[in-house]
Specification:
This protein is of the alpha+beta class. The protein has two helices and eight strands; from the N terminus they run αβαβββββββ. The chain is globular, with a radius of gyration of 19 Å.
């Protein structure tokens, strides 16, 4: 095979494989799988694994696990990814849910690496960490 033939074959292989590789994460999320999904290690460092959970209400985001440092951002109700959790200031959602656990994510208003109270997660139990989500 000539050099030009080899280059054409390689380009064809990439052209066929790339759409399938890009579609796989979207297909897994569409099916509602909760398996961990990885992002760029350079972009996230050690916190590259995403864990998907559902939030049952809109939640304000914070720069730390302390309610004094709000971002002005929000995480809307729905399915979201979270990186880890940590214990911090006690928080009440005003509807009877209380927790000292905070989860790290990117909010829906453009803020990255922010904390949301675990009271917003559907699987949250009062005063307990989220099962399956690693500690920060």
């Amino acid at each position: 095979m000539t050099r030009a033939g080899t280059l054409r074959t390689a380009a064809l292989a990439v052209a066929l494989a790339l759409p399938m590789a890009l579609a796989a994460p979207a297909a897994a999320q569409t099916r509602g799988e909760t398996a961990a999904d990885t992002t760029s290690a350079e972009e996230r460092g050690a916190l590259s694994v995403r864990h998907y959970y559902t939030t049952w209400r809109d939640a304000r985001s914070y720069w730390s696990q302390d309610t004094r440092y709000t971002t002005g951002g929000w995480l809307w109700a729905g399915r979201h990814y979270f990186f880890c959790q940590t214990e911090g200031t006690a928080h009440s959602d005003g509807k009877g849910a209380n927790s000292t656990w905070w989860v790290l994510t990117d909010d829906d208003t453009g803020n990255r690496d922010v904390f949301v109270s675990a009271t917003a997660l559907r699987v949250a139990e009062p005063w307990k960490p989220i099962e399956g989500l690693p500690r920060c």
